[in-house]
């Protein structure tokens, strides 16, 4: 990644003195002067010639020409190497790392979204001011093109528009100054259509966009303790012909749990039906998707160290997290006489032995969810874990474990650029307050804020 110049740098080209002395590759951003473009004026879609003379960003109208700029080409490559992994979770074809960049070579909308997200990712992980300016310019270009989309345009049918909006969603989470829910709302009309999952081939970009949209929707709902924008009860379940379908199926189940619980409409029959769905998923999940190794379980809250779980694939870890999270939410809303129905799967067993308090179960599920995230410690799993941690982390009671979670979350900023400070602040607020466990009737507030 490009390094931000510090006071020791002499800005020499093509290699600065600092890198030449240390023998390192000098990847600092060069000031391109080959292209002249207009800059985006927020709210108008117009471009300022005066700002263009200053910034000299290559316009996205012809992406192949824009990529002749070394800086823009580097951001394009950075997207493939880093943020694309977030979207290819559970996708064996890796469409967001392969098909999306390929289409972007000739599609200004998608190209603008890629450069905006990649530059914002670089800005957040390196504190690069040039990267921030690039991100803002291409974000404006992308938004302008989204506004001009016609309902009948091919970009809506082939998944390009939905993919672009999914990328913008992450851009705006990283940016923090923009409402992170704005494009999630805008994507609803693109993702909730029947073609998104029922009529589209499983390996299509539209289907990949749908699953990404749904996971982003789940993340936002977990931060805000609000229902999804989509009614997933009508979505067709995957055929479960491939391992990645296990993640998709538990995602749909979790979506139904969230919609019922956060709408405070969990009747006892609903609760039993949803629990049965989760238990059936756990029973039928292939053995290769389960952790191939785990640390010995210790007494809950006895020490600060989180448990460890190792999986063959990143989406195996995320699928188990979603199953645990569904159980965590159902536990929070469980009537006390139904607690024995919950499976205690943290130690590998399939049933609860003896009397177990609700708060012990809530914490046990939370510890495993956090342990899975930080054992994997890779961007695709971490990014998908922030929502689950935001909801379940408040149930952790051990001060030593809380500090460990904060330490591990803080380290994520350097690798993925997510605004983890907000998540940490929310968890601290929850821990500082006297937490009242939500009742089955839904009278208590389960919100963690964001």
From TrEMBL:
Keyword terms: Nucleus
Superkingdom in the source lineage: Eukaryota
One of the GO biological process terms: positive regulation of transcription by RNA polymerase II
GO molecular function: DNA-binding transcription factor activity; transcription cis-regulatory region binding
GO cellular component: nucleus
Name of the featured protein: Zn(2)-C6 fungal-type domain-containing protein
Annotated organism of origin: Hypocrea atroviridis (strain ATCC 20476 / IMI 206040)
Taxonomy of the source species: Eukaryota, Fungi, Dikarya, Ascomycota, Pezizomycotina
């Amino acid at each position: 990644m490009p390094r931000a110049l510090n006071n020791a740098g002499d800005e020499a080209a093509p290699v600065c003195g600092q890198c030449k002395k240390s023998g390192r590759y000098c990847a600092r951003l060069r000031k391109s002067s080959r292209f002249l473009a207009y800059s985006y004026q927020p709210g108008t879609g117009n471009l300022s010639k005066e700002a263009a003379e200053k910034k000299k960003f290559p316009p996205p109208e012809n992406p192949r020409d824009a990529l002749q700029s070394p800086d823009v080409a580097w951001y394009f490559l950075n997207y493939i190497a880093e943020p694309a992994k977030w979207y290819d979770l559970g996708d064996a074809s890796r469409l967001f790392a392969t098909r999306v960049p390929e289409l972007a070579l000739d599609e200004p909308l998608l190209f603008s979204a890629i450069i905006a997200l990649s530059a914002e990712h670089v800005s957040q992980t390196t504190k690069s001011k040039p990267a921030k300016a690039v991100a803002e310019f291409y974000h404006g270009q992308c938004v302008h093109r989204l506004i001009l989309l016609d309902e009948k345009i091919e970009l809506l049918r082939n998944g390009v528009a939905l993919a672009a909006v999914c990328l913008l969603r992450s851009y705006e989470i990283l940016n923090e100054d923009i409402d992170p829910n704005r494009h999630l709302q805008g994507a609803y009309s693109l993702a909730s259509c029947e073609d998104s999952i029922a009529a589209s081939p499983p390996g299509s970009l539209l289907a990949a966009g749908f699953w990404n949209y749904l996971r982003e929707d789940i993340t936002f709902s977990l931060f805000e303790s609000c229902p999804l924008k989509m009614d997933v009860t009508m979505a067709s379940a995957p055929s479960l012909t491939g391992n990645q379908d296990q993640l998709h199926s538990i995602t749909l189940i979790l979506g139904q749990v969230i919609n019922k619980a956060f709408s405070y409409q969990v009747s006892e029959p609903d609760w039993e039906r949803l629990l049965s769905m989760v238990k059936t998923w756990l029973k039928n999940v292939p053995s290769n998707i389960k952790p191939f190794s785990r640390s010995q379980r210790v007494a809950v809250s006895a020490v600060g160290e989180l448990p460890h779980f190792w999986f063959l694939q990143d989406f195996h870890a995320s699928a188990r997290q979603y199953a645990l999270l569904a159980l965590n939410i159902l536990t929070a809303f469980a009537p006390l006489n139904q607690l024995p129905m919950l499976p205690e799967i943290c130690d590998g067993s399939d049933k609860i032995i003896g009397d177990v308090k609700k708060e012990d179960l809530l914490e046990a599920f939370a510890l495993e969810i956090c342990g899975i995230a930080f054992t994997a410690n890779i961007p695709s799993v971490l990014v998908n874990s922030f929502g689950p941690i935001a909801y379940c982390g408040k149930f952790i009671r051990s001060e030593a474990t809380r500090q460990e979670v904060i330490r591990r979350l803080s380290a994520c900023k350097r690798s993925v650029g997510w605004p983890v400070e907000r998540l940490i602040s929310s968890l601290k607020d929850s821990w500082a307050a006297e937490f009242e466990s939500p009742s089955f009737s839904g009278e208590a507030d389960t919100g963690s804020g964001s």
